[in-house]
Design goal:
mainly alpha; single chain
């Protein structure tokens, strides 16, 4: 059997393993879905009246802010799901299961690919739930089919990049506890972007950071696609960030896994 079909078969096997873990431990999925929903409800119903009035627009208030906020919440959903991957990878590396896999005729990369594909499916489910809640609290996108496809593709690419980065962070961690803390910077970055307020309302130094960090162009592109606003060059920058992070994180993760799996 050639290498490519073997790798696909092994990756499918590891994907089934990852999905079984997700089903067996639903509390993790509930946490990943619950966190962005809590943020959504908190900011819309507690701060939305004031922040929405500052945004202007035809409706103002909470309705306006729900539209502004939801793209950032969708990104937080993807970040949260990717964070769980670091924990799962660290558990594999510290539990001895990798040593068992080494005794089998299995493609090494399939172990990591299974984690990544499982997270992608888990994230898709989480995004559907969060979008449903967002619609219930006043999110009113005016995107057509093409715009929705573009938004979903960007969220998938973002999830892929963040998941491979989380895989690498899980591999470099010496314990599960360390792996749970390593991706925290990814959780904080959306709060220092245009996800909650326009960057021009921030102090100068913080505004510079928010404008040039990777999550702001991703959020602005999602906002433009879903709400029909201007996108400018945000889409190109967002895709560039995602591809760059995904490529570097994949190479880093592959190197770390090969080094640790050979010990």
């Amino acid at each position: 059997m050639t290498a490519m079909p073997t790798a696909v078969r092994d990756s499918a096997t590891m994907l089934r393993r990852s999905l079984r873990h997700i089903v067996r431990y639903p509390s993790m999925t509930l946490i990943l879905v619950g966190m962005p929903i809590v943020f959504l409800l908190l900011f819309v119903y507690v701060f939305g009246g004031t922040l929405g009035a500052g945004l202007g627009g035809s409706s103002g208030g909470r309705a306006e802010y729900a539209n502004y906020l939801t793209p950032g919440i969708l990104l937080i959903t993807a970040v949260g799901a990717a964070q769980g991957t670091a924990i799962s990878v660290a558990m594999d590396m510290t539990s001895g299961i990798i040593a068992r896999f080494r005794t089998m005729a299995i493609t090494r990369a399939a172990v990591l690919t299974g984690h990544v594909l499982g997270t992608m499916i888990q994230t898709l489910f989480s995004l559907v739930v969060v979008i449903g809640v967002a619609l219930a609290v006043g999110f009113r996108p005016n995107a057509g089919l093409i715009e929705w496809i573009g938004a979903i593709a960007l969220l998938a690419l973002t999830t892929l990049a963040l998941t491979w980065l989380s895989v690498a962070l899980g591999l470099v961690s010496k314990s599960v506890e360390t792996a749970s803390n390593s991706p925290m910077i990814l959780v904080l970055l959306p709060f220092l972007s245009s996800g909650f307020v326009p960057t021009d309302s921030l102090p100068l130094g913080l505004r510079w950071f928010a404008d040039y960090q990777p999550f702001t162009p991703i959020i602005e592109t999602l906002r433009g696609l879903l709400l029909g606003g201007p996108i400018g060059n945000s889409a190109i920058i967002a895709v560039g960030w995602c591809i760059g992070i995904a490529a570097l994180a994949y190479l880093w993760a592959k190197r770390l896994f090969n080094r640790r799996a050979s010990h």
